[in-house]
# Entry
Amino acid sequence: MIPVFKPALDSEETDGVISVLKSRWIGNGPVTKEFEKKFLSYIGGKYCVAVNSASAAIHLSVISSNVKQGDEVITPSLTFVATNHPILMQRATPVFCDVDYDTLCSDPSDIEKKITKKTKAIVVVHYGGHPVDIDPILKLCEDRNIMLIEDCAHASGSYYKDRHVGIFGDFSAFSFAAIKNLTTGDGGMIVGRTRKSIESARTLAWSGISESTWERVKGKKLKWQYNVVSTGWKYQMNDIAAAIGLAQLKKLESNNLKRKKITQKYNSALKDIPWIETPTVRDFAKSSYHNYVIKLPQHLRDRLSEYLAKRGVTTTVHYMPSHYYSLYKKFSADVPVTNRVWKKILLLPIYPDLMQKEQDYIIDALISFNP
Ligand SMILES: Cc1ncc(COP(=O)(O)O)c(C=O)c1O
# Structure
């Protein structure tokens, strides 16, 4: 089977991991610090903490935005549920906003309609690595004193008006899960604008302890005393993951370029098929090309998926909207575009190591489908 996603790994990742294993310091430590520094400099951000998933990073972002019971958080429904779970975990109310039909990213004008006196934060998802049109959303947040959280899970290497995403929000969350453009196996990053908020997120990611074990051991003799200033979680990244991240970061731009070429080849091969809509990239956007999404008439979507599966080509749907799940059914979801579009979308295989002959095979299989 040709998978939908596949991590692009080579000897650099293996060497990095072996070197950490040999060092015998495999937990959170100096390699994680180095990864944080290099990632921050790559995106042009101010402060960050490496964690073990974007789910953790979003959770800490929502907590750090002071979202509490009674608050409303405007967020897309067309996303992975980890975007929205932290809102419920804080006993706040998700208010689902609609997406732009073309890019599948949050629609700024719909966000504006959904703001009330209770709106504490807005979460945006750079869907598939295509940046959200962030300027109008930033203006709404600034004018009304609303926190902005960017879910950059798909967006390592995505730029909005030539600036890397993740630097616009009060907090941003990146994912380095196995299938992401930059992977560490599992991992994530929370990025923020103030030292204070990020240092407090760092404490929350380490059981409320104010100093890391590595900091305490650095002087050769372990300083066993530490202070506990809050409750917290065990959300830290470890140095094995960070070593993979360092190797991946070096190749991110070239890997994303390979994704772009794969996208362009699909676009030109599929543009004349009347029942397929190929993806759009807005002028302000440089996408990471995390996924390749076609839209097709609802009645054909599952049939095509099964047809391709029989020919060894995996496809998937990102996502069934959150409000279709029983946990989220009770929340307001006036989202006509989301309701219509999610039934039309299908993800085709895209990853840097997808071979030309494999892509030709996928394209031929699509062309041979009788709608
Ligand atoms: C949009 C979005 N947000 C958040 C996450 C959660 O990321 P992680 O698996 O790193 O927790 C994902 C994961 O697929 C995602 O696609």
Observations:
- The chain has two domains: 11-249, 253-367.
- The chain has a mean pLDDT of 97.
- The pocket of pyridoxal-5'-phosphate is lined by residues 53-55, 79-80, 82-83, 125, 151, 153-154, 175, 177, 188 (CB under 6 Å).
